[in-house]
Amino acid sequence: MSLTTAARFADHRRPSRVGTTTTDRAELIHDAQTILDGHTCDAVGMCAGCRVMWNRLTPHPCTQASWARAVVGRLPTAETLTALGLRTA
Ligand SMILES: [Zn+2]
């Protein structure tokens, strides 16, 4: 491991870089919601977003929609953080 790589690794492990901030989470949830809004199920059970964006015929939920659904389902929303007293409105 070179000194540069070791320094980069040590920097990555600092407590200030561990975890995500409330803003990071809000942006992540926003991005995930945007993906969910675009990757919807069409009339025959395929992903409309994948067909429009990449001309792919993919069963719904596609990989992107599954990821976004998992993110939205697992991370607390800003309203939840406020209700738990972990964030000020
Ligand atoms: Zn899709």
What's the arrangement of secondary structure elements?
Blueprint: H1 3-12, H2 22-38, H3 48-54, H4 63-74, H5 78-83
Helix pairs in contact: 2-4
This protein binds zinc ion.
Characterize this entry briefly.
With 89 residues, this protein is an all-alpha fold. Helices cover 58% and strands 0% of the residues. Helix 2 packs antiparallel against helix 4 (63-74).
Characterize the structure shown.
With 89 residues, the protein is an all-alpha fold. The chain has one domain (20-83). It is built from 5 helices and no strands. The chain has helices at residues 3-12, 22-38, 48-54, 63-74, 78-83. The N and C termini lie far apart (45 Å). The protein binds zinc ion.
What number of structural domains do the residues give? 1
Number of helices: 5
- CA-based shape: elongated
The radius of gyration computed from the alpha-carbon positions, rounded to a whole number of angstroms, is 18 Å
Task: Fill in the keyword field for this structure.
single chain; binds zinc ion; 5 helices
